[in-house]
Amino acid sequence: MKALHNIWYVAAMSTEVDASALFHRKILDTSVLIYRKQDGTPVAMHDRCPHRFAPLHLGKRVGDEVSCLYHALRFDCSGRCTHNPHGAGATPPNARVRVFPLLERHGFIWIWMGEAPADPTKLPDFGPLDDGHPNAFAATYMHMKANYELIVDNVMDLSHIDHVHGEIITTRGQLSPLTPRLTETPTTITSRSEWTQQPPLMIFSPFMADPQASARHYFEITWTAPANIQLSVGAVQDDSKNLDLVDCIGQYDLHTCTPETADTTHYFFATRRNHLVDDGEFNKAKIQAMHTAFETEDGPVIEAVHAEMGTDDFFGLHPVLICNDAGPIKVRRLLRKMIDAEAQTPAANLRVRAVGSH
Amino acid sequence: MKALHNIWYVAAMSTEVDASALFHRKILDTSVLIYRKQDGTPVAMHDRCPHRFAPLHLGKRVGDEVSCLYHALRFDCSGRCTHNPHGAGATPPNARVRVFPLLERHGFIWIWMGEAPADPTKLPDFGPLDDGHPNAFAATYMHMKANYELIVDNVMDLSHIDHVHGEIITTRGQLSPLTPRLTETPTTITSRSEWTQQPPLMIFSPFMADPQASARHYFEITWTAPANIQLSVGAVQDDSKNLDLVDCIGQYDLHTCTPETADTTHYFFATRRNHLVDDGEFNKAKIQAMHTAFETEDGPVIEAVHAEMGTDDFFGLHPVLICNDAGPIKVRRLLRKMIDAEAQTPAANLRVRAVGSH
Amino acid sequence: MKALHNIWYVAAMSTEVDASALFHRKILDTSVLIYRKQDGTPVAMHDRCPHRFAPLHLGKRVGDEVSCLYHALRFDCSGRCTHNPHGAGATPPNARVRVFPLLERHGFIWIWMGEAPADPTKLPDFGPLDDGHPNAFAATYMHMKANYELIVDNVMDLSHIDHVHGEIITTRGQLSPLTPRLTETPTTITSRSEWTQQPPLMIFSPFMADPQASARHYFEITWTAPANIQLSVGAVQDDSKNLDLVDCIGQYDLHTCTPETADTTHYFFATRRNHLVDDGEFNKAKIQAMHTAFETEDGPVIEAVHAEMGTDDFFGLHPVLICNDAGPIKVRRLLRKMIDAEAQTPAANLRVRAVGSH
Lengths: 358, 358, 358
Fold this sequence. Notes:
In chain A, α1 (about 150-155) runs antiparallel to α4 (about 325-345). Chain A contains 5 helices and 18 strands. Chain A is an alpha+beta fold. The model of chain A is unreliable at about 350-358 (pLDDT under 50). Chain A has helices at about 150-155, 160-165, 280-310, 325-345, 345-355; strands at about 10-15, 25, 30-35, 40-45, 60, 65, 75, 80-85, 100, 100-105, 110, 135-145, 180-185, 190-195, 215-225, 230-235, 250-260, 265-275. The longest helix of chain A has 30 residues, at about 280-310. The termini of chain A are close together. Chain A has a 7-stranded antiparallel beta sheet with strand order 12-18-17-16-15-14-13. In chain A, strands 2-3-4-9 form a 4-stranded antiparallel beta sheet, with no helix packed on it. Chain A has a 4-stranded antiparallel beta sheet with strand order 5-6-7-8, with no helix packed on it. The interface of A and B includes residues 304, 309, 317, 319 and 323 of A.
């Protein structure tokens, strides 16, 4: 699969891995076990006993260690074998399970699948998710039968929303004619659109002074590698105000994709809004609406595109590009450049060969 | 897939594509969209938007045009992009969908999938389907998990009918001992058998002077490329009469196969009988009986053969051939010759490479 | 698939092939038809008509012969075509179905899939299954989604039983610390373990003098090619007695695997016990318990290992081996040596090429 490895991916929502779970998920074609130590710290390792290759998630917890179901070899959080009930009980020194570095931030457990040393500074700051009332934050997960780059394309270019989605987030045709303003750094690509519509986006209008009057709106979308997209969106009716989340009724979202295989993706979504922040029922309804929109509108289109393409070689199919593709195409090109650079790093290659667990 | 391309295949029964449908079907490994213009004329194009590869059948009709669901690019019946709601609205000149020529005849919509110019004279005349009372005509469709040539084999050699089928079309062992008379032209292979049986074929006996008496019968089966088989069958008790559909109680059938993939086939069937021509209920019962016979008798055998072969290289498995194979083997050899000739046509190859949509 | 061919595999339990059956099963990637002659002798042949490749099991019995459903070619037990209803009725001399030698012994029908002449002396003697009351014998079959060598591993090394299984066959931790005693011959590998536990194995304790007292136990496990494992297990409380089936409460089992494909296996099991030998209800309960144990305990682990490995190249994944692996590893190495030797036998290769039915 063409993907970055020396980078952080979401492995799970924090809420997916409870205190006693032996949670497992395939990430970048590799089976991963995740569980929490008794102090709550999450641990990830290859979900494969090095002895007879039984998935470790079938086993059981023994304190902070995990015991394989098949022959009861036991491994600690560093992947070292600490117990062997067979024969004289010697633990083979080469019986090591590969451990994956984790970070737990912003409601997610992030994993580093690459061979290079994990670099916490490579995880972007998604701090806006953290600050505020707990009932203004929500996260969710969807499994998609599509290559992850098709989902990034979908979020990086929102010009589809008037065509794919229903009334709830229609811009009444205002968005498509706009050419988003793109800004780049060596590691980010940002796309910003501003427009005026009447009435405002229905997700915001109930919280505005005049729900039927015109309002200025903006989207600001920032990609960071490998597949994180921060999305700020808001609306304001007072012309003296700024188009940002300080002045607008709006929300900050994180969309992030973790490849399972070349053909399937773990799609995670988190959101924090700046209005009606303490309303738990509204919070549940919002995340449910996001689920419904994605699963009945974007999701089927993206999966149909994936099936129709029959390959992950997007450029090889010679797409006809239009102005709204500028953002996602810049993302695809920068990501490809980073993947190619990683593949040419000799140290990483050597470690991959030595460990041999890919 | 080994198949002719510069030839007519049935894409759909006329009744499958109604006035508002965005009908789609995979043909020769290519996804095809079919719909009718407001004047009723059918249109076929690649079911893939050239922008982001969304299947166009997910979109919507706008007059005689089709609008892609994903980003609302709109295409006319020539495959030209006529509307782009994004940016300044320029329609990219290279945003063209490949269009496939169609002919609507004999109750079917026929498609030309090849790169060479469509040649209407290459569609054989199946006129006997057209003339007569509407209640004497019926057509149907079955999806088969088998290579199309195995279905052609089945219809070209009817010596199986006493073994595979039940009482309704038994020849009481008369057919197998006959060696069919084969005649050939550069583009057709015809197999004819004549025999006498008592009582007559049960599908005809109720319409004969003496349903229990002996009758002369005939089959005449004509293959034309790629996978069309015309089948006339009849019975007559008056010795002064001819063995044809003028003199016999009988019917004219068209069996025709369209490869979906190398392993699956769209099998179409149409029939016109020369007796009880105005009886709509009888007509329905006849087509239902054909369905039942094929789906419970021929179909399972053909699909089992396909699965057992595990390849479409029939001759590579070294079949042991017997006299009744002469017809289908001639068909396989002529078809292979035509496929090889087409593959060596430089012009076609060049166009395939240029368009790149196979 | 890496497997021996010139050797005996179980094709079916004797009870699976009744007097009128046209039984079929895929063995070593080849479809096989099995039926019984009127005298009860089983016959096996390629389940593929050499004419049009229809599976013969779809056909019908005609005395000791089988008639193909599709065109009624008929074949005798030697695979020779004896009847052709087509044309003048000549039976093509090359219309031969490959016949596979069979032996029916020990409740199973054994098949020889290789090209070399079948050698009955290569079937080991599993005589202990035969002698005794019929209600003390049982046999069963399970289909496994795993390579057959993983099942052999599982039975050759029983150190997993305290970890995978429940109370019914727990050794209370006595077995794992033991290093089995291995003995080898050029064609067998035997692993023997002896231990004392209190209370005895629950499958035997009800039949012992003091069901709660300590007892000496033993396992003796003998592999023969390709995938036969004889297992004797017993317990005794009188210290003057021997650890064998003469003196112990115990049972003799045969586990044997027949590859269907590289990824799926026919797993057969037979057992004879030396206690409560006339109790038919107990016999049924025993075989049901074995089914339950394997299907809910060993089976899921083995299939999970197979899926996690994603290959049948066990050594290529660099397993970390421990003392209890000595037996199964010797089996894997000896089997691989035998497979390599077979592959280098020129005669066998020549016959494979000549017959061409692999």
